[in-house]
Specification:
mainly alpha; cell membrane; 81% helix
């Protein structure tokens, strides 16, 4: 029961992050399942089955709050589904001993990308409104779908930063569109795992626990995307992914405990510094934006009695 409650809380937290940042539900959930000894293919299958429900709820919530561009959803979701099906069948046939470190390397790379991207660069918004081309979205969807299925996550970490980096959509619509299109990816990946695995290794109680946590968080996250600074959240999530998957890799290669502890403490220190840097950068950007707005609006009209009298003359 304690394990199920923990998994439900992870599902809730992961969906809060995913729905407000556009990434990290699958990566976070899969990382936890691998940490407690789950087969990599079964972990990814479990997460994707839960995501069928959570992504549907998340998509509906984002649509309700006006965060979805349906053209982008169609153009990236269909090739994403193709890539996810291929990735799921590939992972199902991969030997477990090879799969676990391989998937941890993929997750670690994604975590590093998210951490560095959001800590040092933040979000680009200077070209918002310029249409996104199909020749950009289709290959992006295919690659992101394949990485998502093989890594148990990756649709958001690959897709969201790529579209944000283009600067052609406002962040809330990028996040809403990525979350909504992920429904197609989750369905296709689940079908791929059923073809390759059947139901072997999939714990339906874990699926339900992840699903319930995600369903509770989905509407909250769709609202939070309007108010939570993505830069800070991105640094926090990226550091968590790097920390947990570094631990998995070090243990997989039988590194001595003292070196594992040293490495994890060092990463934790860098992670804390990155979050602090992101918070400071966000506050600086907010002050600069307020100053620019004050300059545009100009000085306030005088309201003293003397000024009012002078205005009359």
């Amino acid at each position: 029961m304690k394990t199920l409650i923990l998994i439900a809380l992870v599902g809730l937290g992961a969906q809060l992050v995913d729905g407000s940042l556009g990434m990290a539900y699958g990566v976070t959930s899969t990382t936890l399942l691998l940490a407690i000894g789950t087969n990599p293919a079964a972990a990814s299958a479990t997460v994707h089955l839960a995501e069928v429900g959570t992504t549907l709820a998340s998509g509906l919530s984002h649509w309700k709050f006006g965060n979805v561009d349906w053209k982008v959803v169609a153009r990236i979701g269909v090739p994403g589904a193709v890539g996810a099906f291929i990735g799921a069948t590939f992972l199902s046939w991969l030997a477990v001993d090879l799969a676990k470190p391989l998937i941890s390397i993929i997750l670690l790379a994604l975590g590093l990308y998210v951490l560095l991207r959001f800590t040092f660069r933040g979000l680009r918004t200077d070209r918002i409104g310029t249409p996104l081309r199909k020749r950009f979205l289709a290959p992006l969807g295919l690659v992101a779908g394949f990485v998502d299925a093989t890594g148990g996550g990756g649709w958001g970490p690959v897709g969201t930063p790529a579209i944000l980096a283009s600067g052609r959509m406002e962040p809330r619509k990028v996040i809403g569109s990525i979350d909504t299109s992920e429904f197609f990816v989750a369905v296709a990946a689940s079908l791929g795992f059923f073809v390759g695995l059947g139901t072997a290794g999939i714990d339906t109680q874990w699926v339900v626990a992840l699903l319930l946590g995600g369903l509770i968080a989905a509407p909250i996250a769709a609202y939070l995307v309007r108010i939570v600074p993505p830069r800070v959240l991105g640094s926090a999530v990226g550091g968590l992914i790097v920390l947990t998957n570094t631990r998995t890799l070090l243990l997989a290669f039988d590194v001595a405990d003292v070196w594992v502890s040293t490495a994890l403490w060092a990463i934790a220190a860098v992670w804390a510094a990155a979050v602090a840097w992101s918070i400071n950068a966000h506050l600086v950007q907010r002050r600069e934006a307020a100053a620019e707005a004050a300059v545009v609006e100009g000085p306030a009209e005088p309201t003293t009695p003397a000024a009012t009298g002078a205005a009359r003359h």
